[in-house]
């Protein structure tokens, strides 16, 4: 996937680690360095670890989606449904199908955290995949799962694209579709 519309996010990792009480996986740090936060094919969004000033609309944030995943854990039966400490669930992404992509942070080594999909329309509300974020995304984008781990058809075999949140924001303000850049009669309609 080209980083054409990606950008180094310039994350203050020391502040992010202090806020979350943990270091982050190296693949997530590298992804942020190459792409930043944004959307893959308009179907999966990678979240910022900390809120960013200057956003014109409020995209999903890591803290908000982490809270959402933990609420789903509680609503689905807590430990009886998924026997983990809910504090060990940290969201790093979301899909257009309302799935929340998380890490299970039980291991003290962030590079060994598996991905947990908090599925909204999947067979199981929680499913653990023994991969890090980058490998999970690679497998998702390569259509390597026999059964999709998310609620949507993520990739149809066509072109993969990434659009950074700043680029999407500019397109929206210019009256274009944030993902494709094509004219969009509804883009910018809800801005001040």
Automatic annotation (TrEMBL):
<dbReference type="InterPro" id="IPR018958">
    <property type="entry name" value="Knr4/Smi1-like_dom"/>
</dbReference>
<protein>
    <recommendedName>
        <fullName>Knr4/Smi1-like domain-containing protein</fullName>
    </recommendedName>
</protein>
<feature type="region of interest" description="Disordered">
    <location>
        <begin position="172"/>
        <end position="192"/>
    </location>
</feature>
<feature type="domain" description="Knr4/Smi1-like">
    <location>
        <begin position="12"/>
        <end position="128"/>
    </location>
</feature>
<dbReference type="InterPro" id="IPR037883">
    <property type="entry name" value="Knr4/Smi1-like_sf"/>
</dbReference>
<dbReference type="Pfam" id="PF09346">
    <property type="entry name" value="SMI1_KNR4"/>
</dbReference>
């Amino acid at each position: 996937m080209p980083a054409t519309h990606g950008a180094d996010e310039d994350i203050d990792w020391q502040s992010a680690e202090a806020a979350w009480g943990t270091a982050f996986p190296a693949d997530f740090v590298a992804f942020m360095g190459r792409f930043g936060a944004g959307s893959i094919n308009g179907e999966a969004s990678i979240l910022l670890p900390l809120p960013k000033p200057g956003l014109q609309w409020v995209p999903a944030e890591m803290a908000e989606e982490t809270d959402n995943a933990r609420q789903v854990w509680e609503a689905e039966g807590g430990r009886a449904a998924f026997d983990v400490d809910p504090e060990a669930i940290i969201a790093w992404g979301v899909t257009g199908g309302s799935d929340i992509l998380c890490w299970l942070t039980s291991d003290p080594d962030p590079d060994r955290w598996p991905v947990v999909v908090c599925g909204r329309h999947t067979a199981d509300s929680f499913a653990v995949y023994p991969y890090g974020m980058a490998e999970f995304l690679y497998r998702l984008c390569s259509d390597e799962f026999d059964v999709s781990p998310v609620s949507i058809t993520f990739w149809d075999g066509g072109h993969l694209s990434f659009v950074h949140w700043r680029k999407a924001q500019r397109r929206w303000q210019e009256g274009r579709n944030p993902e494709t850049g094509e004219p969009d009669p509804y883009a910018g309609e809800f801005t001040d």
